Amino acid sequence: MRGVVDEGLLEAAGELRDLVAVTRFPIDTGDVDVARDAQVALLDQLDDYVLPRLKAMDAPLLAVIGGSTGAGKSTLINSIVGATVSRSGVLRPTTRAPAGILPSISPHVCSGTNRYAGSGCARKLLSCAAYSGRSTSRRA
Q: Does pTM surpass 0.70?
C-alpha cells in the first residue's frame, strides 16, 4: 500500500480493532457502562484516526492546541506555520473563538471529493468552525 509506514503495525492495529470490537461485557457491574463507553471511544479513535493515518500517511493531521489565556498558543501556532495565522497580543483573551487552520495546499480536506471528508478529523474541524458561529478556517 502506498503511504503505509509499516505493514506489521497496520496489521497489528487492525487486529487490535477487531479484538476490541468483539469484546463483550456481559456482567452488569457498577463500572460496566464506563467500560462500554471506553470501548466505543477506542473504536472511534482507531476508525477515525489511527487506521486511516496508518493506511495513508498523507491523511490530514488534526492537532489541538489548548491552554490558559496568555499561555502563547497563537504564538506557537504562528511559529509552527511560519506566518501570522492567529493574531497574538497583550490583551486577554486575544483569540476569542476557535480557529481552524488548514495548509494552503489542502483546501480539499473538508470537501466532499476528498476521501477524508467524512473522517472524524474533518467533522471535528467543521464542528469547531460551526461552534463559533462564523467561518474560522484560515489558510496558511
A: no
